[in-house]
Amino acid sequence: MVMILLTLLVWLAGERAVKRPFPGFALGVGALLGLCFLTRIDAVFFIAAVTAWHTLLGFRQQFAEFKRRLGESLVMGLTSMVLAGPWLAYNKLVFGSFMPISGTAQSTGRFGANLAHVPGNLFDYATLVLPVPKAILTSPAAVAMSALAILLYAAITASMARHMTRQQFSVLMIGTLFLLGLAGYYGLFFGAPHFMGRYLSPVSPLLAILTVAIGMVAIHQWGPKLALIRWSSAMIPIIIVGLVLGLNTRT
Predict the structure, then answer these.
(1) What is the pTM of this model?
(2) Cα 170 from Cα 225, distance rounded (Å)
(3) b/e map 122-160, b = 16+ CB within 10 Å
């Protein structure tokens, strides 16, 4: 998670720069992407998200800029794979698979077996301090309520996206592509449902930042108008501390 945030910060610094040195910028981001991959093999979805969005940003610009971005994306992706290559080769030679032995052992499962675990876990990460109890995580009611909450969360985010800066919107899109990759792969094609929280955890810092941003915007826009929000903004720290203490005491 730290590597993902660090990579995003470095990529954003390059986006804000007047001129990105080639191939230095792409090599640097590619090396960080490679370290993300060595940290978690499912960072391949993050690599795909960063390189795809970096290229897509060139579509609204001149063709020369699009070609430059495409070249940078190729350098990023190839650098990340060169860095991860020795580890992948070791896995293949020793264990007969590029995927780590733990991943191979956990990958047994039928199509869509983990899908019911996705809404509740995303609800946990989006709300920060409101985990869905494991005992009811996959019950129809919990799945339906979590899914509705996530859809509402997505709708609020979409309405905020119109007012975001280009850099903020880029982080949102990279995070969304990364989330869709993780949720799609682990929800539809993987096994070990009891590990779904861990599988989806790389997006938790991005969802946490987004949730805090939504809260700050709501307080800034509506706080002066609604006494309830003025009161709740003062009570939020107390409520959060109470939730954290209560939930950990329960655990």
Answers:
(1) 0.88
(2) 31
(3) bbbbbbbeebbeeeebbeeebbebbbebbeebeeebeeb
Pairwise CA distance, residues 186 & 121, whole Å: 12
pLDDT tens-digit series, residues 62-115: 888 899 999 999 999 999 999 999 999 998 998 888 887 777 777 767 888 899
Residue 99, token pair as written in the block: 């995927």
**pLDDT tens for residues 105-129?**
777 678 888 999 999 999 999 988 7
Closest to 36 in 3D by CA, of 205, 196, 167, 197: 205
N- to C-terminal Cα separation, the chain: 24
Token pair for residue 83? Answer: 């860095």
Instruction: Give dist(CA 145, CA 168) in Å, integer.
Output: 29
CA–CA separation, 138 and 123 (whole Å): 13
